[in-house]
Amino acid sequence: MVLVVGSGAGGATLARELAIRGIDVTVIERGPCVKDSDAFLCYDEAPDVDILRTSCAGGSTLVAAGNAVRVLENTLKDYGVDITEDLHAIEAELRVRELPDTHTGRGTALIMDAAESLGLGVKKMPKFIDPDKCRPCGKCSFGCPRAAKWSARRFLDEAVEHGAVLIEETEAKNIIVRNGSVSGLRTSRGDFHDETVVLAAGAIETPRILMRAGIDAGNGLFMDTFVTVGGILEGVGFCDEVQMNALIELDGVILSPHFSTLLFPEDDRRNVLGIMVKIADERSGRVEADRIVKHHTVRDISLLSGGAAIAGSILSRAGVGAGTLRSTRPRGAHPGGTASLGEVVDENLETSIEGLFVADASVLPAAPGAPPILTIMALARRLARHIVSVL
Predict the structure, then answer these.
(1) Count of CB atoms within 10 A of residue 310's CB?
(2) Rounded mean pLDDT of 194-218?
(3) Which residues pair with residue 341 across a beta bridge?
(4) Which one of 63, 129, 207, 255 is CB 3.0 to 4.6 Å from 218, fit for a cystine?
């Protein structure tokens, strides 16, 4: 049997791949099972650093924007990890594609046209969203009310159909170790015993479990820091569009149409047009037992401010009143790096404790600066093959 802690992009993919191959799998999930449309109720509190993440079956994939971009593919090869074929397979299965023009709203079109008029390269964002099911409503980051967007819940359901066991609302506490090898997991519902444990609890909780097992983890935190820049354009109705449906790639920065309620909480949301400015931040943070520490470096601040200035120019060209422009505070979207390849895990994602693996963004050696869901899934598929080969 294999114990998998967490059921997001990594955990659910791994559980499905193992279950399909006839391996007994038990998935330990801290959060509850909820409907896709209720995923917004499962956002975790962020008392130290504002990092967007959820605790529920399917993890943060339920509140992701459905963006499907390849990240860190070549970087991982430098560590002896080739995920190219796995990425091909995932893209085919999830039917990754650009949405048709019928799903491009007025606000997104204005942003795209304005960016092109400024000489910026713009393309549509590839998505794992079924356009036949999608009725643009702006709720991608709250949980899709029509389940038009792929989420890890689908893989988790398939894993259960093939015999996997899901134990929800259960917190992983400590790794049980005997003679340098893993022999089980201590949880809030008692002990589970097995010689293979995979941590996929995310880049905040996974290193904490590792630290309690005596492994030096938690350093090198990145979080793909972002701000949303926006202003007022009367009646644009951008809040009801498919979010992040276009992509502008700059050096170390991406820009994408994005609505945030934090910009103008006092104004009619239908009058707000915004752009997300996201950077591949430096690994300048750390996860500790009871807090998260993250510093923004000079480089990070320079990238954010430069990207925000460009976003402001695009919005002004799109018709937003220059005197209305403002920005949110910096937040984090994709934490990772806290159990990195070459530092905490080897090329097979195994730790110094035999039989203890990691299959989430913790293992990423650098900030992707874009959603890493496909990369995490590809790493999990690769790990599944390795685990099958050694069982």
Answers:
(1) 19
(2) 97
(3) 345
(4) 207
Tokens of 218: 């938690």
DSSP state letter for 149: B
Q: How far is CA 61 from CA 53, 64, 66, in A?
A: 9, 5, 8
Distances (CA, A) of 120 to 132, 246, 283, 285, 313: 31, 12, 28, 32, 11
Domain boundaries, the chain: 2-96+143-221+335-390, 99-142+222-332
Tokens of 125: 């964002």
Q: Is 261 exposed, middle or buried (0-12, 13-18, 19+ CB in 10 A)?
A: exposed
pTM: 0.96
Both tokens of residue 223? 């979080």
Task: Return the number of other C-beta atoms located less than 10 Å from residue 80's C-beta.
Answer: 11
Rounded distance between C-alpha atoms, residue 178 and residue 168, angstroms: 27
Q: Which of 285, 365, 373 is nearest to 80 (CA)?
A: 365
- Domain 99-142+222-332 class in CATH: alpha beta
CB distance 223 to 333 below 8 Å: yes
CB-side neighbour CA atoms (13 Å) of 156: 29
Q: What is the pLDDT of residues 128-172, one digit of tens each?
A: 999 999 999 999 889 999 999 999 999 999 999 999 999 999 999
CA dihedral 106, 108, 109, 113 (to 10 degrees): 140
The per-type count for the chain, helices as H runs and strands as E runs, is: 8, 20
DSSP 22: T
Give domain 2-96+143-221+335-390's CATH architecture: 3-Layer(bba) Sandwich (3.50)
Q: Are 63 and 142 in contact (CB under 8 A)?
A: yes
Distance separating alpha carbons of residues 278 and 285, to the nearest angstrom: 17
Tell me the pLDDT tens digit for each residue of 77-135. 999 999 999 999 999 999 999 999 999 999 999 999 999 999 999 999 999 999 999 99
- Closest Cα to residue 60, out of 140, 130, 2? 140
